[in-house]
Amino acid sequence: MDWLMNIKEEISELKDELIGIRRDLHQHPELGFEEHRTAGIVETYLEKNGIKTSRVGGTGVVGLLEGGSPGPVLMLRSDLDALPVQETADVSFKSTVDGKMHACGHDGHTSMMMVAAKVLARHREELSGTVKFVFQPNEEDAGADIIIEEGVMENPKVDAAVGMHLWSPLPTGKVGITAGPLMASSYYFWLTIHGKGGHGGAPHLSKDPVYCANQLMNAVQSIQTREHDVLEPTLITFCQVNAGSSPIIIPDKIQLAGSIRCLHDKDEQIRERFEAITAQTCALHGTTYELTFKCGNELLDNDMEMTKMVREAAIDAGGANCLIENNLQVMLGEDFAAFAKLVPSTFIFLGIADEEKETNMPHHHPAFKLDEDALPMGVELHVRTAAAYLKP
Ligand SMILES: [Zn+2]
Ligand SMILES: [Zn+2]
Protein backbone atom coordinates (compact mmCIF):
# COMPACT_ATOMS: atom_id res chain seq x y z
CA MET A 1 0.00 0.00 0.00
CA ASP A 2 1.17 3.49 -0.76
CA TRP A 3 2.48 4.86 2.56
CA LEU A 4 1.41 8.36 1.61
CA MET A 5 -2.27 7.40 1.50
CA ASN A 6 -2.76 8.06 5.20
CA ILE A 7 -0.17 10.79 5.56
CA LYS A 8 -2.68 13.55 6.27
CA GLU A 9 -4.14 11.60 9.22
CA GLU A 10 -0.70 10.68 10.48
CA ILE A 11 0.35 14.34 10.48
CA SER A 12 -2.91 15.57 11.99
CA GLU A 13 -2.34 13.22 14.94
CA LEU A 14 0.88 15.18 15.54
CA LYS A 15 -0.76 18.60 15.35
CA ASP A 16 -0.76 19.22 19.12
CA GLU A 17 2.91 18.26 19.31
CA LEU A 18 3.66 20.54 16.34
CA ILE A 19 1.91 23.54 17.84
CA GLY A 20 3.44 22.81 21.25
CA ILE A 21 6.96 22.97 19.80
CA ARG A 22 6.16 26.12 17.87
CA ARG A 23 4.75 27.94 20.90
CA ASP A 24 7.72 26.97 23.04
CA LEU A 25 10.11 28.33 20.41
CA HIS A 26 7.98 31.44 20.10
CA GLN A 27 8.24 32.11 23.82
CA HIS A 28 12.03 31.76 23.72
CA PRO A 29 13.27 33.65 20.65
CA GLU A 30 17.00 33.82 19.96
CA LEU A 31 18.81 36.11 17.51
CA GLY A 32 21.12 34.93 14.72
CA PHE A 33 24.08 32.77 15.87
CA GLU A 34 22.68 32.82 19.42
CA GLU A 35 20.17 30.00 18.81
CA HIS A 36 21.69 27.77 21.54
CA ARG A 37 18.47 26.73 23.26
CA THR A 38 16.65 26.26 19.95
CA ALA A 39 19.47 24.17 18.47
CA GLY A 40 19.50 21.98 21.58
CA ILE A 41 15.77 21.34 21.29
CA VAL A 42 16.06 20.43 17.60
CA GLU A 43 19.02 18.14 18.26
CA THR A 44 17.35 16.26 21.11
CA TYR A 45 14.14 15.81 19.12
CA LEU A 46 15.89 14.50 16.01
CA GLU A 47 18.10 12.10 17.98
CA LYS A 48 15.05 10.78 19.86
CA ASN A 49 13.50 10.02 16.51
CA GLY A 50 16.52 8.09 15.27
CA ILE A 51 18.10 10.82 13.15
CA LYS A 52 21.85 11.42 13.41
CA THR A 53 22.75 15.05 14.05
CA SER A 54 25.76 17.30 13.82
CA ARG A 55 26.40 21.02 14.31
CA VAL A 56 27.26 23.62 11.71
CA GLY A 57 27.94 27.33 12.16
CA GLY A 58 27.89 26.89 15.94
CA THR A 59 24.12 26.98 16.40
CA GLY A 60 23.06 25.23 13.18
CA VAL A 61 21.85 21.63 13.30
CA VAL A 62 22.08 19.10 10.47
CA GLY A 63 20.03 15.90 10.67
CA LEU A 64 20.79 13.00 8.36
CA LEU A 65 18.13 10.44 7.54
CA GLU A 66 19.28 7.57 5.37
CA GLY A 67 16.59 5.79 3.43
CA GLY A 68 16.14 2.06 2.95
CA SER A 69 18.10 2.06 -0.31
CA PRO A 70 20.80 4.26 -1.80
CA GLY A 71 20.00 7.34 -3.87
CA PRO A 72 20.50 11.09 -4.09
CA VAL A 73 20.67 13.57 -1.20
CA LEU A 74 17.86 16.07 -0.75
CA MET A 75 18.38 19.03 1.54
CA LEU A 76 15.32 20.42 3.32
CA ARG A 77 16.10 23.73 4.95
CA SER A 78 14.60 25.67 7.84
CA ASP A 79 15.87 28.72 9.73
CA LEU A 80 16.14 29.13 13.50
CA ASP A 81 16.60 32.84 14.20
CA ALA A 82 14.29 35.49 15.64
CA LEU A 83 14.45 39.29 15.27
CA PRO A 84 15.22 42.28 17.52
CA VAL A 85 11.53 43.25 17.69
CA GLN A 86 9.36 43.88 20.76
CA GLU A 87 6.23 41.73 20.40
CA THR A 88 2.92 43.59 20.65
CA ALA A 89 0.52 40.83 19.56
CA ASP A 90 -1.78 39.55 22.28
CA VAL A 91 -1.09 35.80 22.41
CA SER A 92 -0.93 33.47 25.40
CA PHE A 93 2.53 32.27 24.34
CA LYS A 94 4.03 35.74 23.90
CA SER A 95 7.82 36.14 23.75
CA THR A 96 9.36 36.04 27.22
CA VAL A 97 12.49 37.84 26.05
CA ASP A 98 12.45 41.61 26.06
CA GLY A 99 13.12 43.11 22.63
CA LYS A 100 13.24 39.78 20.81
CA MET A 101 10.54 38.06 18.83
CA HIS A 102 9.88 35.46 16.16
CA ALA A 103 8.43 38.09 13.84
CA CYS A 104 9.30 36.31 10.60
CA GLY A 105 7.76 32.89 11.33
CA HIS A 106 10.99 30.92 11.69
CA ASP A 107 9.53 29.28 14.82
CA GLY A 108 6.89 27.81 12.50
CA HIS A 109 9.53 26.73 9.97
CA THR A 110 11.58 24.94 12.61
CA SER A 111 8.63 23.12 14.19
CA MET A 112 7.28 22.02 10.79
CA MET A 113 10.59 20.56 9.74
CA MET A 114 11.12 18.81 13.08
CA VAL A 115 7.79 17.03 12.78
CA ALA A 116 8.41 16.28 9.09
CA ALA A 117 11.71 14.66 10.12
CA LYS A 118 9.88 12.50 12.66
CA VAL A 119 7.31 11.36 10.09
CA LEU A 120 9.94 10.66 7.43
CA ALA A 121 12.03 8.70 9.95
CA ARG A 122 9.07 6.37 10.55
CA HIS A 123 8.95 5.66 6.83
CA ARG A 124 12.68 5.66 6.05
CA GLU A 125 12.44 2.25 4.37
CA GLU A 126 10.29 3.85 1.66
CA LEU A 127 13.00 6.33 0.67
CA SER A 128 15.85 5.78 -1.80
CA GLY A 129 18.55 8.19 -0.76
CA THR A 130 19.13 10.60 2.08
CA VAL A 131 17.29 13.56 3.54
CA LYS A 132 19.58 16.22 4.94
CA PHE A 133 17.59 18.42 7.32
CA VAL A 134 19.42 21.73 7.63
CA PHE A 135 18.28 23.96 10.51
CA GLN A 136 20.36 27.01 9.75
CA PRO A 137 21.30 29.90 12.01
CA ASN A 138 20.97 33.59 11.24
CA GLU A 139 18.87 33.64 8.07
CA GLU A 140 18.21 37.34 8.60
CA ASP A 141 21.85 38.15 7.93
CA ALA A 142 23.16 35.66 5.39
CA GLY A 143 23.89 32.77 7.78
CA ALA A 144 23.75 30.45 4.77
CA ASP A 145 27.13 31.71 3.51
CA ILE A 146 28.84 30.74 6.77
CA ILE A 147 27.48 27.20 6.87
CA ILE A 148 28.27 26.69 3.18
CA GLU A 149 31.85 27.71 3.94
CA GLU A 150 31.83 25.19 6.77
CA GLY A 151 30.86 22.47 4.30
CA VAL A 152 27.13 21.94 4.84
CA MET A 153 26.72 21.01 1.17
CA GLU A 154 29.27 18.17 1.48
CA ASN A 155 29.44 14.82 3.35
CA PRO A 156 27.12 13.67 1.97
CA LYS A 157 27.06 15.94 -1.06
CA VAL A 158 23.70 17.66 -1.52
CA ASP A 159 22.08 17.08 -4.94
CA ALA A 160 19.06 19.35 -4.58
CA ALA A 161 17.44 21.66 -2.03
CA VAL A 162 13.97 22.84 -1.09
CA GLY A 163 13.05 25.67 1.25
CA MET A 164 9.73 27.05 2.44
CA HIS A 165 8.58 30.30 4.04
CA LEU A 166 5.30 30.85 5.87
CA TRP A 167 3.92 33.88 4.05
CA SER A 168 1.40 36.41 5.30
CA PRO A 169 0.68 37.95 1.86
CA LEU A 170 -1.04 34.63 0.95
CA PRO A 171 -4.21 33.22 2.54
CA THR A 172 -4.02 30.13 4.76
CA GLY A 173 -4.22 26.97 2.70
CA LYS A 174 -2.57 28.44 -0.37
CA VAL A 175 0.87 27.45 -1.61
CA GLY A 176 2.90 29.90 -3.70
CA ILE A 177 5.06 28.09 -6.24
CA THR A 178 6.77 29.48 -9.30
CA ALA A 179 9.84 28.75 -11.40
CA GLY A 180 12.43 31.42 -12.19
CA PRO A 181 13.39 34.54 -10.23
CA LEU A 182 11.37 34.77 -6.99
CA MET A 183 13.29 36.96 -4.55
CA ALA A 184 15.70 39.75 -5.42
CA SER A 185 19.43 40.01 -5.07
CA SER A 186 20.42 42.80 -2.72
CA TYR A 187 23.68 44.68 -2.51
CA TYR A 188 24.17 47.26 0.22
CA PHE A 189 26.19 50.36 -0.60
CA TRP A 190 28.00 52.96 1.45
CA LEU A 191 28.86 56.18 -0.36
CA THR A 192 30.77 59.16 1.01
CA ILE A 193 30.95 62.33 -1.07
CA HIS A 194 33.80 64.68 -0.18
CA GLY A 195 33.44 68.35 -1.05
CA LYS A 196 34.69 71.57 0.49
CA GLY A 197 32.86 73.07 3.44
CA GLY A 198 32.00 76.71 3.85
CA HIS A 199 29.47 79.36 4.80
CA GLY A 200 25.81 78.63 4.02
CA GLY A 201 25.54 82.16 2.67
CA ALA A 202 28.48 81.76 0.27
CA PRO A 203 28.10 78.37 -1.42
CA HIS A 204 30.01 79.57 -4.49
CA LEU A 205 33.17 79.44 -2.38
CA SER A 206 32.56 75.80 -1.36
CA LYS A 207 32.03 72.49 -3.14
CA ASP A 208 28.69 71.60 -1.62
CA PRO A 209 28.49 67.80 -1.10
CA VAL A 210 24.82 68.02 -0.06
CA TYR A 211 23.79 69.57 -3.36
CA CYS A 212 25.87 66.99 -5.21
CA ALA A 213 24.23 64.14 -3.26
CA ASN A 214 20.79 65.54 -4.04
CA GLN A 215 21.58 65.51 -7.78
CA LEU A 216 23.05 62.03 -7.53
CA MET A 217 20.14 60.51 -5.62
CA ASN A 218 17.85 61.57 -8.44
CA ALA A 219 20.25 60.79 -11.30
CA VAL A 220 20.73 57.11 -10.40
CA GLN A 221 16.97 56.49 -10.45
CA SER A 222 17.12 56.74 -14.24
CA ILE A 223 19.00 53.42 -14.35
CA GLN A 224 15.78 51.58 -13.53
CA THR A 225 13.56 53.25 -16.07
CA ARG A 226 15.84 54.60 -18.83
CA GLU A 227 18.78 52.23 -18.95
CA HIS A 228 17.44 48.83 -17.93
CA ASP A 229 14.32 47.01 -19.13
CA VAL A 230 11.60 47.93 -16.62
CA LEU A 231 10.16 44.44 -17.05
CA GLU A 232 13.24 43.23 -15.16
CA PRO A 233 12.70 44.94 -11.79
CA THR A 234 15.53 46.98 -10.30
CA LEU A 235 15.27 49.01 -7.12
CA ILE A 236 17.67 51.59 -5.72
CA THR A 237 16.80 52.91 -2.27
CA PHE A 238 18.70 55.39 -0.11
CA CYS A 239 17.99 54.63 3.54
CA GLN A 240 20.67 56.58 5.41
CA VAL A 241 21.75 60.18 4.84
CA ASN A 242 24.16 61.85 7.24
CA ALA A 243 25.70 65.28 6.88
CA GLY A 244 26.17 68.62 8.55
CA SER A 245 26.12 70.11 12.01
CA SER A 246 24.41 73.48 11.61
CA PRO A 247 21.89 75.31 9.38
CA ILE A 248 24.53 77.83 8.32
CA ILE A 249 27.56 75.64 7.60
CA ILE A 250 28.03 73.71 4.38
CA PRO A 251 29.63 70.43 5.51
CA ASP A 252 32.71 69.02 3.83
CA LYS A 253 31.19 65.58 3.30
CA ILE A 254 27.94 63.61 3.19
CA GLN A 255 27.47 59.92 3.87
CA LEU A 256 24.78 57.91 2.10
CA ALA A 257 23.83 54.26 2.41
CA GLY A 258 21.17 52.08 0.85
CA SER A 259 20.59 49.02 -1.26
CA ILE A 260 20.34 48.00 -4.90
CA ARG A 261 17.96 45.11 -5.55
CA CYS A 262 17.50 43.19 -8.79
CA LEU A 263 15.00 40.53 -9.76
CA HIS A 264 17.24 39.54 -12.67
CA ASP A 265 20.82 38.41 -13.07
CA LYS A 266 22.33 41.61 -14.52
CA ASP A 267 22.91 43.11 -11.09
CA GLU A 268 26.63 43.63 -11.74
CA GLN A 269 25.86 45.93 -14.70
CA ILE A 270 23.49 47.94 -12.51
CA ARG A 271 26.21 48.44 -9.90
CA GLU A 272 28.66 49.48 -12.60
CA ARG A 273 26.23 52.11 -13.89
CA PHE A 274 25.56 53.29 -10.34
CA GLU A 275 29.28 53.86 -9.87
CA ALA A 276 29.69 55.54 -13.29
CA ILE A 277 26.86 58.00 -12.60
CA THR A 278 28.34 58.65 -9.16
CA ALA A 279 31.76 59.39 -10.65
CA GLN A 280 30.35 61.69 -13.32
CA THR A 281 28.02 63.56 -10.98
CA CYS A 282 30.85 64.12 -8.52
CA ALA A 283 33.16 65.30 -11.31
CA LEU A 284 30.47 67.72 -12.46
CA HIS A 285 30.23 69.25 -8.99
CA GLY A 286 33.93 69.20 -8.17
CA THR A 287 33.62 66.58 -5.43
CA THR A 288 35.20 63.17 -4.92
CA TYR A 289 33.72 59.96 -3.56
CA GLU A 290 34.33 56.62 -1.89
CA LEU A 291 31.93 53.78 -2.68
CA THR A 292 31.76 50.25 -1.27
CA PHE A 293 29.31 47.43 -1.91
CA LYS A 294 28.50 44.35 0.15
CA CYS A 295 26.35 41.47 -1.02
CA GLY A 296 23.27 40.99 1.18
CA ASN A 297 21.66 38.18 -0.81
CA GLU A 298 22.04 36.71 -4.26
CA LEU A 299 19.09 36.38 -6.62
CA LEU A 300 16.81 33.49 -5.62
CA ASP A 301 16.09 31.80 -8.94
CA ASN A 302 13.90 28.69 -8.72
CA ASP A 303 14.91 25.69 -10.83
CA MET A 304 12.28 24.54 -13.36
CA GLU A 305 12.43 20.78 -12.66
CA MET A 306 12.54 21.08 -8.86
CA THR A 307 9.65 23.54 -8.97
CA LYS A 308 7.63 21.14 -11.11
CA MET A 309 8.23 18.31 -8.65
CA VAL A 310 7.23 20.35 -5.59
CA ARG A 311 4.19 21.66 -7.49
CA GLU A 312 3.01 18.06 -8.00
CA ALA A 313 3.60 17.33 -4.30
CA ALA A 314 1.54 20.39 -3.37
CA ILE A 315 -1.33 19.29 -5.62
CA ASP A 316 -1.26 15.86 -3.93
CA ALA A 317 -1.39 17.61 -0.55
CA GLY A 318 -3.95 20.34 -1.19
CA GLY A 319 -5.45 19.89 -4.64
CA ALA A 320 -4.83 22.12 -7.67
CA ASN A 321 -6.89 24.87 -6.02
CA CYS A 322 -4.27 25.42 -3.34
CA LEU A 323 -1.74 26.70 -5.87
CA ILE A 324 -0.89 30.35 -6.45
CA GLU A 325 1.58 30.65 -9.30
CA ASN A 326 1.53 34.32 -10.28
CA ASN A 327 2.53 37.64 -8.73
CA LEU A 328 4.69 35.97 -6.10
CA GLN A 329 7.93 37.82 -6.83
CA VAL A 330 9.21 40.23 -4.20
CA MET A 331 12.17 42.60 -3.98
CA LEU A 332 13.04 41.23 -0.52
CA GLY A 333 16.04 38.96 -0.20
CA GLU A 334 16.32 35.44 1.20
CA ASP A 335 19.59 33.71 1.97
CA PHE A 336 18.29 30.36 0.67
CA ALA A 337 19.55 31.87 -2.61
CA ALA A 338 23.07 30.88 -1.57
CA PHE A 339 22.12 27.17 -1.63
CA ALA A 340 20.09 27.64 -4.81
CA LYS A 341 23.21 28.95 -6.58
CA LEU A 342 24.98 25.64 -5.93
CA VAL A 343 22.33 22.95 -6.60
CA PRO A 344 18.94 22.73 -8.34
CA SER A 345 16.53 24.19 -5.82
CA THR A 346 13.14 25.67 -5.27
CA PHE A 347 11.75 27.94 -2.59
CA ILE A 348 8.01 28.09 -1.91
CA PHE A 349 5.59 30.16 0.14
CA LEU A 350 2.92 28.72 2.44
CA GLY A 351 0.02 31.07 3.16
CA ILE A 352 -0.86 32.02 6.75
CA ALA A 353 -3.18 34.99 6.29
CA ASP A 354 -6.58 34.90 7.96
CA GLU A 355 -8.16 38.28 8.59
CA GLU A 356 -10.23 37.14 11.57
CA LYS A 357 -7.21 35.64 13.28
CA GLU A 358 -5.20 38.80 12.45
CA THR A 359 -2.50 36.69 10.84
CA ASN A 360 -2.18 38.99 7.83
CA MET A 361 0.35 41.40 9.33
CA PRO A 362 3.59 41.98 7.40
CA HIS A 363 6.62 39.89 8.34
CA HIS A 364 8.95 41.65 10.83
CA HIS A 365 6.00 43.67 12.24
CA PRO A 366 5.75 43.67 16.09
CA ALA A 367 2.15 42.40 15.84
CA PHE A 368 3.07 39.60 13.40
CA LYS A 369 1.13 36.38 14.07
CA LEU A 370 0.94 33.15 12.16
CA ASP A 371 -2.05 30.91 11.57
CA GLU A 372 -1.08 27.65 13.23
CA ASP A 373 -3.70 25.83 11.17
CA ALA A 374 -1.31 26.20 8.23
CA LEU A 375 1.48 24.26 9.92
CA PRO A 376 0.30 20.67 9.21
CA MET A 377 0.22 21.53 5.50
CA GLY A 378 3.86 22.64 5.74
CA VAL A 379 4.78 19.30 7.31
CA GLU A 380 2.94 17.45 4.55
CA LEU A 381 4.71 19.48 1.85
CA HIS A 382 8.11 18.58 3.32
CA VAL A 383 7.15 14.90 3.58
CA ARG A 384 5.70 14.67 0.08
CA THR A 385 8.64 16.56 -1.42
CA ALA A 386 11.12 14.13 0.13
CA ALA A 387 8.97 11.17 -0.95
CA ALA A 388 8.85 12.45 -4.53
CA TYR A 389 12.56 13.21 -4.84
CA LEU A 390 13.67 10.01 -3.12
CA LYS A 391 11.16 7.72 -4.78
CA PRO A 392 12.53 4.15 -5.02
ZN1 LIG B 1 12.69 37.82 7.93
ZN1 LIG C 1 12.12 34.80 7.24
Q: How would you portray this structure in words?
A:
The chain has 392 residues and is α/β, with parallel strands linked by helices. The protein has 2 domains: 3-182 and 299-389, Aminopeptidase (3-Layer(aba) Sandwich); 185-297, Alpha-Beta Plaits. 32% of the residues lie in helices and 28% in strands. It is built from 11 helices and 16 strands. It is elongated and about 80 Å long. The model has no long low-confidence stretch (mean pLDDT 97). Residues 104, 106, 139, 165 line the site of one zinc ion.
Strand residue content: 25-35%
Which whole number gives the mean pLDDT? 97
Bound molecules: zinc ion
CATH fold naming of the largest domain:
Aminopeptidase
CATH architecture of the largest domain, by name, is 3-Layer(aba) Sandwich
Residues in helix, %: 25-40%
Within CATH, the superfamily of the largest domain carries the name Zn peptidases
CATH class of the largest domain: Alpha Beta
> Element order, helices and strands?
HHHEEEHEHEEEEEHHEEEHEEHEHEH
User: How widely separated are the two ends?
Assistant: 14 Å
- Morphology: elongated
Largest sheet: 8 strands, mixed
